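Reminder to self: tokens first, then the designed residues, so the page reads top to bottom the way the pipeline ran.
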């Protein structure tokens, strides 16, 4: 894992690719083990992360990583819903390793990923964020996500319940046909 975040200029925002699988897995594990932001408390096994990345690429789902010298330090992806009546929608997931937060990478990753989703005809991009994740909520507000509701006690970590805020961007002009 890249530890030195002093040279933020060396961060590349690039499409998620097969070559990122192992370092994506490491970054996912770092963020998961913080036990506050993701639906994971640790990364799934490497083979599951590999399948996830390979499936996203094969399906053409938008996904970008922030990489420093080839090592993933952040990611953002949108997974299109499987069923035909929901195929205009996708679920956004993202994370940034701690030493690279607060430097604008989240905005860059979301902007790149949402721009690709728009090109791909997504009408609705949705997400869930833990209600105590103020930094992420502020970012999502800034890039145009709108709060749609709250799921009370949606998350249970280390003996504590947390609410989840549902947010979305809806842009019907992206509708295909």
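Designed residues (177 positions):
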């Amino acid at each position: 894992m890249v530890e030195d975040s002093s040279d933020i200029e060396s961060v590349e925002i690039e499409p998620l690719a097969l070559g990122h699988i192992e370092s994506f897995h490491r970054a996912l594990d770092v963020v998961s083990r913080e036990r506050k932001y993701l639906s994971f408390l640790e990364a799934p096994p490497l083979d599951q992360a590999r399948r996830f990345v390979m499936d996203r690429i094969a399906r053409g789902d938008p996904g970008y990583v922030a990489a420093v010298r080839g090592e993933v330090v952040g990611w953002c992806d949108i997974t299109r819903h499987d069923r035909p009546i929901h195929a205009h929608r996708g679920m956004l997931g993202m994370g940034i390793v701690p030493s690279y937060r607060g430097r604008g990478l989240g905005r860059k990753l979301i902007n790149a990923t949402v721009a690709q989703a728009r090109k791909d005809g997504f009408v609705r991009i949705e997400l869930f964020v833990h209600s105590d994740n103020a930094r992420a909520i502020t970012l999502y507000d800034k890039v145009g996500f709108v709060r749609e509701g709250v799921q009370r006690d949606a998350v249970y970590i280390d003996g504590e319940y947390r609410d989840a805020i549902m947010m979305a961007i809806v842009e019907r002009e992206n509708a295909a046909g």
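The helical segments are 21-32, 46-59, 105-119, 134-142.
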